[in-house]
Each structure stands twice: as C-alpha cells, then as structure tokens.
Design a protein that fits this description.
Structural class: mainly alpha
Oligomer: single chain
Helix content: over 70%
Distance between the termini: 26 Å
Shape: rod-shaped
Amino acid sequence: MDVLELIDKLDDLIHNARAVPLTDQVRIDREAIYELLDEMRSTIPEEVKQARWIVKERQEMLAEAKREADRIVAEARDAAAREVSQQEVVRKAEREAETILEDARLREREVRLGAEDYADEVLGTLEVNLGKFLAAVQRGRDRLQGKVQAEDTSGGSVIYDEQADEH
C-alpha cells in the first residue's frame, strides 16, 4: 500500500470518528491510528529506497556511457595509428575519430539528461507524497488540538483520556 492510500485512510478515520455527546470532541480508535502510522513508517523507507535505486541506476548509466565513449575514442585512435603510414588515410581517420567522439558525447549527454529527468520525476513524486502525508498528519493534529483548546477557552470541562497520557 502506498503512502497516499494510508493518508486517505487516516483522513477517513478522523473524518468518520464518532462524536462525544454534548462536546465538539470525537472518539478515535487509537489502535487504528497506530496501525496506520506504523504502515506509513514502513512504506516511506521503501519509497526512499526506490529513489536511491534510481539515483544509483542513473550513475551506472552515466558510467557506462563514459566507458562506451572512451572505448569508441580508443578504437578511433587505434585505427588512426594503424593507418599512419599514409597521410591521406591519417587525415580521414582523424576526421572520423572526431565525428565518432562528437557522436559519443551527444549520446552520453542524451543518456545523462534522460536519467536526470527520470530521477527528478521520481523524486518529485516522492516529495509530493511526503507533503500530502505531512499535511494530513498536521490536519489531524490541528483538529485534535483545536477541540482541546476550544474547550479550555470556553470554561467547560476538558475530557481527560488516561490512555492518551500513556503514549
């Protein structure tokens, strides 16, 4: 289950909580909240692992492109060295080596930019998901705090939950 689904469950749990009669407070199943929070804690590290894997893949792709470019350049230089005896052949080989080198640079750049775009997209998605998670948690806390403060300022009695103090 992904973080967004867990956030939706948490929001539903708070939204559908039963009201305490004659107050603005609601009763929330503490175990259900803790279960959702535990699931969120286990889900977020997995998404971070995926983002790290993407970065690692990007680095490996860049290294592979660099090795390929180096190999192509080395091959071009070897070919040119073998044909050194004929001046015209040497000039032709150098032109081809430059063309191959430029093509390799272009390929390396395309691969690098593609990998960066992909990694940025995944990290952006993760950022949005984490933002939504934090917003849902803050809304839940604000709702809980707003109800306690409203009772404190109204001069009414405050419902004391012994189990809440245990955590």
